[in-house]
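Long-time lurker, finally posting.

We've been working with DUF3221 domain-containing protein (Flavobacterium endoglycinae) and I want a structural starting point before designing mutants. I don't trust myself to interpret raw outputs, so I'm hoping someone here can both generate the structure tokens and explain anything notable. Sequence follows.
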Amino acid sequence: MKNLKRISLLVILITFIISCSGVKNNNAISISGKVESIEGGKDGYTAKIITDKKEVYFATISIVNVGGPQNYKQLKIGNQVSLKGEGWKTEDENHLKVTEIVSVK
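Top reply, 14 upvotes:
Generated this for you. Predicted structure of DUF3221 domain-containing protein:
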């Protein structure tokens, strides 16, 4: 009986691990645009980006989310940027948690 419980627990654990590893981020997006403003935060900053299609995104950029200090860049107002990350919308705002700073001009 103990062996049956252990085997059942093992099967459930393996099923859980496999199902979690197959989850993909459906909110991954890329944006390009001009930095309109920058607001400092605790672990990084939020840049207001205006895209070519006149969409406004609030891009949160932190050292941890871009993969370390070697990938982190401090954007400046007026920079043309391309960013990748996880996007979401609130009632009236577009947000992006930046995971990659593709280019800065």
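Before you design anything, note these points.
The chain is about 20% helix and 45% strand.
The mean pLDDT is 89.
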